């Protein structure tokens, strides 16, 4: 049995890019990997921040809001040129982090004093809500990855099946959010954790820490094809499936199925 939450599962990513153990043709898998590498982790030497982008947590809007300020960063153009050289080399020279890289990658590769001085932040989301969002996103933009499952509960069971072949767009949304925030010993490495549930308020808090003022948060990828209350998508079985699979996130980040249940603020 494969546990998709364990580091040992990463060999399936390599198999997917090689065109093995995946429903995606090799050429498409390689193009997907290349496109992902072309969108680097959001790092600003001038403003001394690092944004850890967890999928389906409002990160696209955060990146869009902060991207304009990066152009005024004197380090932006050298970083951009290195990014282009990395792309031309097939990403063999390791000059940047992928868009959805975990904070541990930055900690291991950046100079320690430089990493420690950065304001590191991320946003998280209720796991039950995130899975509904992921379902609609895939159905809307990559319906061929649904595995023939048009019903949310059926898709969720198939998605979390440990025997399902790896597929990047699906598996990215079932990685533990907490794994993006910690080191190998479970120690928190980010300085601030915002919540999708009050994205605008927490984004402004992060901007104050960075020292940026007057930045509005655009609403990118706003869904109009889903019910607003994610609880309507679940029956008892699917609710417990998410509770079991994402138990570490639910405990560490203080989430519950019922949003009226008090949640501890992490970070």
Number of helices: 12
Q: Biggest sheet: strands side by side, in what order? A: 1-2-3-4
Which percent range fits the helix content? 40-55%
When the domains are counted, the total is: 1
Q: What structural class do the secondary elements suggest? A: alpha/beta
> Count of DSSP E strands?
4
Q: Secondary-structure element order, as H and E?
A: HHEEHHHHEHHHEHHH
Residue fraction in strands: 5-15%
Major sheet description:
4 strands, mixed
CATH architectural group: 3-Layer(aba) Sandwich
Tell me the overall shape: globular
In angstroms, what separates the terminal alpha carbons? 34 Å
Low-pLDDT regions: 7-38, 262-267
The fold-level CATH name is: Rossmann fold
- As a whole number of angstroms, the C-alpha radius of gyration is 19 Å
Average the pLDDT over all residues and give the rounded result.
81
CATH class descriptor: Alpha Beta
